């Protein structure tokens, strides 16, 4: 991705968050210059990859594959003594036409919540326990806001603003926006998040974009922070 695309995506998400009256912690507004002066007092942000995260999964097609997100809080399963939180919270912005690809988590359970805007479509399958690279054809038990029911494998569950779905380990899921409903702000409340070890994508994909520096960064991404002095 071009840095200008990343800057544009961050500014668009800032506007959507403001539209839906959500307030982010102060560090989301720090400039690259301000980050140069942040010492070890802020290692929790660095070590747990809090902050801005714009991904195209390394494929270079952000308008169709990828989305914008912020990690607000997170624990660390590899440094439990230092960071004992057992939970995480994120916000995501998905535009019409964008797609978050099919994947599951080996460990993490999460609630995906429509915080406002358009309708979210989430397709669900269970992984085949004999070959996790395949979908099972078994029905999927779905939990949405206190409602437990069963749907055929591959069903798209629609989440309107305010609605949520619980995603369990080994439950394949993707998400996109229902056409004609507009950009959506998605909340995620979950167990600790570890994108390096707990994501199993149906198709092999990268995680972070390769960046072409065509302009100065507006905000640093969560994998770009300078080391503490």
Task: For this entry, give a set of tags.
mainly beta; six-stranded antiparallel β-sheet; 14 strands; single chain; 229 residues
CATH topology: Jelly Rolls
Largest sheet: 6 strands, antiparallel
With strands numbered from the N-terminus, the spatial order across the biggest sheet is: 1-2-3-13-5-11
Task: Tell how many strands the DSSP assignment holds.
Answer: 14
Structural class: mainly beta
Return the average pLDDT rounded to an integer.
96
Q: Helix and strand string, N-terminal first?
A: HHHEEEEEEEEEEEEEE
Quaternary form: single chain
- Residue windows where pLDDT falls under 50 for at least 5 positions: none
Task: Return the domain count.
Answer: 1
Rg, please? 18 Å
Relevant CATH superfamily:
Jelly Rolls
Assign an overall shape. globular
InterPro entries: D-lyxose_isomer (IPR010864), EcSI_cupin (IPR047581), RmlC-like_jellyroll (IPR014710)
EC number: 5.3.1.15
Catalytic activity: D-lyxose = D-xylulose
Keywords: Carbohydrate metabolism, Isomerase, Manganese, Metal-binding
Task: Describe the 3D structure.
This protein is mostly beta strands and 229 residues long. The chain has a single domain, classed as Jelly Rolls (Sandwich), CATH 2.60.120.10. Helix content is 11%, strand content 38%. The chain contains three helices and 14 strands. The strands form three sheets. Strands 1-2-3-13-5-11 form a six-stranded antiparallel β-sheet, with helices on one face. Strands 4, 6, 7, 10, 12 and 14 form a six-stranded antiparallel β-sheet that branches. Strand 8 and strand 9 form a beta hairpin. The longest helix has 17 residues. The radius of gyration is 18 Å and the shape is globular. The protein starts with a helix and ends in a 28-residue tail after the last strand.
């Amino acid at each position: 991705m071009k840095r200008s695309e990343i800057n544009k995506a961050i500014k668009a998400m800032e506007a959507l968050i403001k539209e839906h009256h959500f307030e982010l912690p102060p560090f989301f507004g720090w400039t690259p210059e301000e980050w140069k002066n942040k010492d070890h007092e802020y290692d929790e942000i660095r070590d747990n990859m809090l902050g801005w995260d714009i991904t195209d999964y390394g494929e270079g097609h952000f308008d169709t594959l990828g989305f914008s997100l912020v990690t607000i809080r997170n624990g660390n399963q590899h440094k439990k003594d230092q960071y004992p939180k057992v939970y995480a919270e994120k916000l995501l912005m998905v535009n019409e036409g964008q797609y978050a690809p099919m994947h599951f988590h080996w460990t993490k359970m999460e609630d995906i919540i429509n915080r406002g805007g358009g309708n979210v479509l989430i397709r669900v399958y269970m992984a085949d326990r004999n070959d996790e690279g395949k979908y099972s054809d078994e029905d999927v038990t779905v939990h949405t806001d206190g409602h437990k029911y069963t749907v055929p494998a591959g069903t798209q569950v629609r989440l309107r603003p305010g609605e949520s779905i619980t995603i369990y380990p080994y439950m394949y899921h993707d998400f996109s926006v229902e056409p004609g409903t507009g950009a959506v702000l998605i909340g995620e409340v979950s167990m600790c998040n570890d994108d390096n070890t707990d994501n199993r994508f149906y198709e092999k994909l990268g995680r972070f974009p390769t960046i072409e520096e065509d302009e100065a960064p507006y905000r640093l991404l969560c994998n770009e922070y300078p080391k503490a002095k």
